Request: fold
Amino acid sequence: MPHLHTDPGDHDATVSFFIVRTDGPEPRLMYHRHLKVRKLMMFGGHIERDETPWTAVLRELVEESGYQPAQVRVLQPRIRMRRVTDAAAHPVPVMSSTACTSAEPAHFHTDLLYALTTDEEPAGAPDDGESTDIRLVTRSELDRIPDEDIVEMWREAGRFILDEILGAWEPVAMDAYPGAAPLV
Reply:
């Protein structure tokens, strides 16, 4: 998906997520080497014009990781709004952030970051043209990744997910949240 808003100072809406594998002796975060940035990052991408943020997460999950939504769960705080009248209630993100891109011209990405968990291998593979350099990283390995190989904000987010979110939030089925917004 091309950037929609690329004039200097414009904002693009994006979604991202980490997948935490829980099937080993300790949790492992999945990172992939971003094809353009050439560093380890989370999965995700732009919200297309006809998508809600949650629909974009579902699409990017399959495209970039090979996982099907039924194979993973989204981590959610135990106290949260579960339904709202006349709107689609989306999952609570781990973080909402805005950062300037390195792309020219410089513009912003306003991102919603989610944490997903699974205890299995992906059913498929990343789509053609997506990064296949996928790494499973434990907490101690995360700290040892050289600075030149990782985007620091995504190392910080990974630490937060492993240290704070994983044990405190509950895993919820991906289909518990509607992808589409209700028609008025």
